[in-house]
């Protein structure tokens, strides 16, 4: 027997990477459910939850009550397809960045569960299908707005802004504001000042929502070379800009009361939730000035608080048309 031959029993490879790849590097056979999960992950379903939170209440307000159920379903399906297509193309374009960040290194393209080519085809297919779906089953205006949203997110944000400017999430966040315009136009066929104010709420909400997350993952963004504001600017500057955006967000939410002819449910919610989230942001800024960091600074408290704020505000918006005196 060759003395160099190792006769000890060998452990089989384990872990996600081993299960996904054969020794030759080709993808291993996987179940249908795992393949489906990978493609669903491409659409970023957790982000699309915001689509549900903002679009349906907007439709309720636009209709002054409960819109046609089929119209709600058709709009939500079309919106999901549009957002899913944009997110898939975003993952394709950002696959090099995602591979260097702990928060994103398990995304399907990085792990090899979905090939880059398949992701592009999937993203384009969803995007085209969303436009056709909305044009046929909702209206042309909603389809046009969906196409604009996709282009804003994929081209304007991902390809142009994200790697070039610290204000990337500010202007790139415009794409995330489009669902309220799509929901409004689905009911009315157009866009009103009330819809613009709803757009403004989400536009100004995006920075104080996302910058605390970027603060927590600053090292990730530094490694990936993405100039998020918390990476390239002082915490004090970031905190001041968060206060400014929050104030403008609250102003938009309050302006809807007279212009959108809302009732007391939304009015109370706008004042109460605005005051609460404003306090969270100001407290964060005070902690920054004190030189606190990490858990003592509490950026994720603001991040999660922003989601709670937007959810409560839009739930109140949905309830308001049904509770009038």
Automatic annotation (TrEMBL):
Keywords: Cell membrane, Heme biosynthesis, Membrane, Transferase, Transmembrane, Transmembrane helix. Pathway: Porphyrin-containing compound metabolism; heme O biosynthesis; heme O from protoheme: step 1/1. The keyword Membrane applies. Residues 12-28 have a biased composition (Low complexity). It is found in: Cell membrane. One of its GO terms (molecular function) is protoheme IX farnesyltransferase activity. PANTHER family: 4-HYDROXYBENZOATE SOLANESYLTRANSFERASE (PTHR43448:SF7), PROTOHEME IX FARNESYLTRANSFERASE, MITOCHONDRIAL (PTHR43448). HAMAP family: CyoE_CtaB. This is Protoheme IX farnesyltransferase. It comes from Brachybacterium hainanense. The gene is ctaB.
């Amino acid at each position: 027997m060759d003395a160099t031959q190792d006769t000890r029993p060998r452990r089989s490879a384990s872990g996600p990477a081993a299960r996904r790849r054969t020794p030759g590097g080709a993808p291993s056979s996987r179940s249908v459910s795992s393949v489906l999960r990978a493609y669903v992950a491409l659409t970023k379903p957790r982000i699309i939850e915001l689509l549900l939170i903002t679009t349906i209440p907007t439709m309720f307000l636009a209709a002054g009550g409960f819109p046609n159920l089929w119209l709600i379903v058709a709009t939500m399906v079309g919106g999901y397809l549009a957002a899913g297509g944009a997110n898939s193309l975003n993952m394709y374009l950002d696959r090099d960045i995602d591979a260097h960040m702990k928060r994103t290194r398990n995304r399907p393209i990085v792990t090899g569960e979905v090939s880059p080519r398949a992701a592009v085809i999937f993203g384009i297919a969803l995007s085209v299908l969303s436009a056709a779906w909305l044009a046929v089953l909702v209206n042309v205006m909603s389809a046009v707005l969906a196409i604009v949203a996709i282009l804003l997110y994929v081209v304007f944000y991902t390809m142009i802004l994200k790697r070039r400017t610290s204000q990337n999430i500010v202007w790139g966040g415009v794409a995330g504001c489009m669902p309220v315009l799509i929901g409004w136009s689905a009911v009315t066929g157009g866009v009103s000042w009330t819809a613009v104010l709803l757009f403004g709420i989400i536009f100004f909400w995006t920075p104080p929502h996302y910058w605390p997350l970027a603060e927590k993952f600053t090292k990730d963004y530094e490694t990936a070379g993405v100039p998020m504001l918390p990476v390239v600017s002082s915490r004090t500057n970031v905190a001041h800009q968060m206060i400014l955006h929050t104030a403008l967000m609250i102003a938009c939410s309050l302006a809807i009361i007279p212009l959108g002819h809302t009732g007391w449910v939304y009015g109370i919610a706008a004042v109460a939730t605005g005051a609460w989230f404003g306090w969270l942001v100001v407290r964060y800024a005070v902690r920054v000035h004190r030189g606190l960091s990490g858990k003592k600074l509490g950026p994720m408290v603001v991040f999660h608080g922003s989601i709670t704020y937007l959810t409560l505000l839009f739930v109140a918006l949905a309830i308001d048309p049904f509770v009038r005196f």
